[in-house]
Amino acid sequence: MKAEDRKELKQNTLVATLEKVGSGLKEGPSRRTVVVFGIILLVVLLYIVWRLVAGVSETRNSKRWEELYGAGSVNDLKELADTSKNTVQGRAARLQIARDELQEGMDTIFNDHDKAVEKLRSAAASFDKLARDFKSTPILVQECLFGAAQAREAAGDLDEAVAHYTDLANRYPDSSLGKKAADLKSSLEKKKDELEKIQAQLKKKE
Q1: CA of 111: how far to CAs of 1, 23, 124, 135, in Å?
Q2: Domain ranges of the chain
Q3: Tell me, which fold does domain 71-205 have in CATH?
Q4: How confident is the model at residue 59 (pLDDT cuts 50, 70, 90)?
Q5: Which stretches of 28-156 are DSSP H helices?
Q6: How far apart are CA 190 and CA 196, in angstroms?
Q7: What is the pLDDT of residues 162-196, one digit of tens each?
Q8: Rounded Cα–Cα distance for residues 34 and 10 (Å)
């Protein structure tokens, strides 16, 4: 091919390319280009929104932990439990309240029977709900089932106490609390009549 022919071919190719680009600019972007650009833009926007939401969530989560660790009274725990019901911190606050009610009820059962029973039954109800809420954390489920059983036993609800001990022993037969629950269930069944008499005497004192 002669040099003149090659030069002319290059010029023709360049002209054709420029004409194609110019035509594309006049016609605007293709539908496919618009769709791709739109998808990219949407992904970028979603990422920005996700980062903003994650930042707010992390800040709130940190604040709830601070409130839990800084709780200086039962009222502080109750406020956190009410405002953060379905969070880890809210459940932890409810668990601590149930523990406190159980201990207070057992400490005062011989001095203020009616009030103690009220505390114990409140603790048992809280432990029951928490056992369901903590279903993905076996160690806490065991504590809640055991706490509910203890509360029911101390309150004189012996059949319910046996049921909770049995449930714990059956679900976690190899754990220390499961084995302890099995022993307490057997002991409670043997001493049921005696314990019912003690509960009756405590009621008469009121």
Answers
A1: 116, 96, 20, 36
A2: 30-70, 71-205
A3: 1.25.40
A4: low
A5: 31-69, 74-83, 88-108, 113-133, 138-155
A6: 12
A7: 999 999 999 999 999 999 999 999 999 888 878 87
A8: 32
